[in-house]
Every structure is written in structure tokens, then in C-alpha cells.
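Field log, afternoon session.

UNIT: design team B
ACTIVITY: writing a sequence onto a fixed backbone
BACKBONE:
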């Protein structure tokens, strides 16, 4: 399950992650780097500390990834899931 090996986009999603302690930040980042279905991981401001873009084959695959791996990441207390229904703009070029 690699970053670009999947052709179906039905299970793309962005996840918000919230490591609960400062000590868990390094462990969280290390664990994310080892999971091939995580396409992007961003430290963000707002309700969560990290925003993950993941890819799953379908809902059954997503349920497996969520239940067995995502919620088991170090420091994760809660998650929110958003599913991509349609890409409107993706990786648009910047003017600078």
C-alpha cells in the first residue's frame, strides 16, 4: 500500500491527529513516516496538531487502517475524517 500505487480514489481522506503530550510528537512523526498509506503529514494550527492525507482502497480498507493503525499512532487521542469526493484543484502551480 504505497503513496501512489493505488489508482482508486474512493478512500482518500484527510485526518486530523492530536498527540496528547509534547513527548509524543517525535514518536508520532517517526511512526507516520513508516506507514506507506500516509501520503502527507503536516503540522498545522487549529483544532489538531497534525493533518494526514491517506489513501485506502475502499471503506473496508479504511476501516481496517483506522481501527488497526491510525488510532494506534503514538499520542493520538481523537481523529476526524474527511473524504475527498471530487478534486477541484490539486497541486496548482504557484506564481512565485
Amino acid at each position: 500500500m504505497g503513496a501512489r500505487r493505488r489508482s482508486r480514489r474512493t478512500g482518500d481522506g484527510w485526518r486530523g491527529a492530536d498527540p496528547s503530550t509534547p513527548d509524543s510528537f517525535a514518536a508520532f512523526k517517526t511512526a507516520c513516516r513508516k506507514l506507506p498509506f500516509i501520503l502527507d503529514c503536516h503540522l498545522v494550527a487549529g483544532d489538531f496538531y497534525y493533518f494526514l492525507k491517506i489513501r485506502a482502497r475502499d471503506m473496508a480498507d479504511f476501516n481496517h487502517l483506522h481501527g488497526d493503525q491510525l488510532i494506534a499512532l503514538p499520542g493520538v487521542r481523537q481523529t476526524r475524517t474527511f473524504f475527498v469526493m471530487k478534486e477541484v484543484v490539486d497541486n496548482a502551480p504557484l506564481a512565485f
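LOG NOTE: The longest strand covers residues 76-83.
NEXT ACTIVITY: expression trials, pending approval
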